[in-house]
Amino acid sequence: MTVIEDLGKRAKQASRDLLSLSTAEKNQVLGASAQALLQAGETILAENAKDLALAQEHGISAVMEDRLRLTAERIEAMAEGLRQVADLQDPIGQVVQGFTNRDGLKIVQKRVPMGVIGMIFESRPNVSVDAFSLAFKTNNAIILRGGRDAIHSNKVLVGVLRQALREAGVNPDAVQLVEDPSHAVAEELMQAADYLDLLIPRGGARLIQTVKDKAKVPVIETGVGNVHIYVDQTADLDMATKIVINAKTQRPSVCNAAESLVVHQAVAGEFLPQLAQAIKDVHPVEFRADDRALALLPEAVPAQAEDFATEFLDYILSVKVVDNLEEAIEWVNTYTTHHSESIITQDIAAADGFQEQVDAAAVYVNASTRFTDGFVFGLGAEIGISTQKVHARGPMGLEALTSTKFYINGQGQIRE
Fold first, then answer.
1. CA-based torsion, 408, 412, 413, 416: positive or negative
2. Which residues, including other chains, have CB under 8 Å from residue 233's CB and lie 6 or more apart?
3. Are 343 and 232 in contact (CB under 8 A)?
4. Cα(280)–Cα(249) distance, integer angstroms
5. How do the pLDDT tens digits run along the chain, 416 residues long?
6. Which end of the chain is more exposed for a tag (fewer CB within 10 A), N or C?
């Protein structure tokens, strides 16, 4: 029996065991798990330090190191995320619709668990806890496969969660970790159709594409964010400056950070020098600019074609100057990864047109794209941000981890 077969069989059994848990019981376990994380704080930080040390030996960038790092505050945030999920309404058992058909059959459609969820993700160890909380609240078992760079952190976090389940009398196989970081085992998980009901990859473009190419399990794409901000000709340029700086520099390693700036030619001459000066006071950013933007940004470098399609996850921003709103929309739709896009404008018609015509899960007017987040949207912790249109789109909370089932009750009816 392979590692994945063993994990899969145990997860299948756990998913059946979880069906009997009530909302109150699940919430109690989530609260106990939050407390367990806090109590294990020193141990978690010690294991995370091992991952950080190895990453530094391998020359990790400061931005990517931030994704990997845990602190006391981040452990508290993970615990608070568990408590918040406990406070959310439980979707399991919710009636989607109910009716009596012309044959007298009483038909009710209810929300039910997916069953077993697989998740393959990179770097950020807090994902282990977020994913567990959402899967558990929806009575799903979950198999986690994190990146090699966070293996010590993920082991200790999943170990704490499993112990909390065990102490609560719940099958600890509700959450399991693939501890073998090899690509071969990851590919076996992608193809474990006998055990997984859904697979969620969360990471960079290469990971997402690999999973799409090799999976035999239904996949929800998440995370890749070539995020644009378009500064329109009627934009309040001080507002635009503040928004672009926030979206690019607050936390550049996340998927809702801005990667591409598109500017209307009517304001480019004033806006781009203003932005370049203001952003230096926050953090230096490398601008990779087209020909028209280069003339306005003396310290910029010429953009290559691939720069406009790249999720940098760094202090780098591509810049494109356009002639009108229509060109901006066409440009964004050409290079979008369907994650989050924003327009800065005082023109209501332009705002409406941008929101209607841009093909993305979240489209903003006069706001930073950094808000695309399950917690901010009121969903509690998120398991990912779907860039697809099937089943779930945007930040994925509890409801996205459910399916539905029809319950039909009759009194002896047969079909003539």
1. positive
2. 264, 266, 267, 345, 347
3. yes
4. 10
5. 899 999 999 999 999 999 999 999 999 999 999 999 999 999 999 999 999 999 898 888 887 888 899 999 999 999 999 999 999 999 999 999 999 999 999 999 999 999 999 999 987 899 999 999 999 999 999 999 999 999 999 999 999 999 999 999 999 999 999 999 899 999 999 999 999 999 999 888 888 889 999 999 999 988 789 999 999 999 999 999 999 999 999 999 889 999 999 999 999 999 999 999 999 999 999 999 999 999 999 899 999 999 999 999 999 999 999 999 999 999 999 999 999 999 999 999 999 999 999 999 999 999 999 999 887 888 877 888 999 888 889 999 999 999 999 999 999 999 98
6. C
Q: Give the H or E element holding residue 317.
A: strand 316-322
Cα–Cα distance for residue pair 395/391, rounded to 1 Å = 12
SS3 289: strand
Q: Which helix (H) or strand (E) element contains residue 328?
A: helix 325-335
Residues whose CB falls within 8 Å of the CB of residue 295, separated by 6 or more in sequence, listed in order: none
CA 64 to chain centre: 16
Which domains, from first to last, does the chain contain? 3-222+383-409 (3.40.605.10), 228-371 (3.40.309.10)
Beta-bridged to residue 263, according to DSSP, are: 231, 321
Q: Which amino acid is it at 408?
A: I
Cβ contacts of residue 44 below 8 Å, gap of 6+? 37, 70, 75, 153, 156, 157, 160
In total, the chain counts a number of residues equal to 416
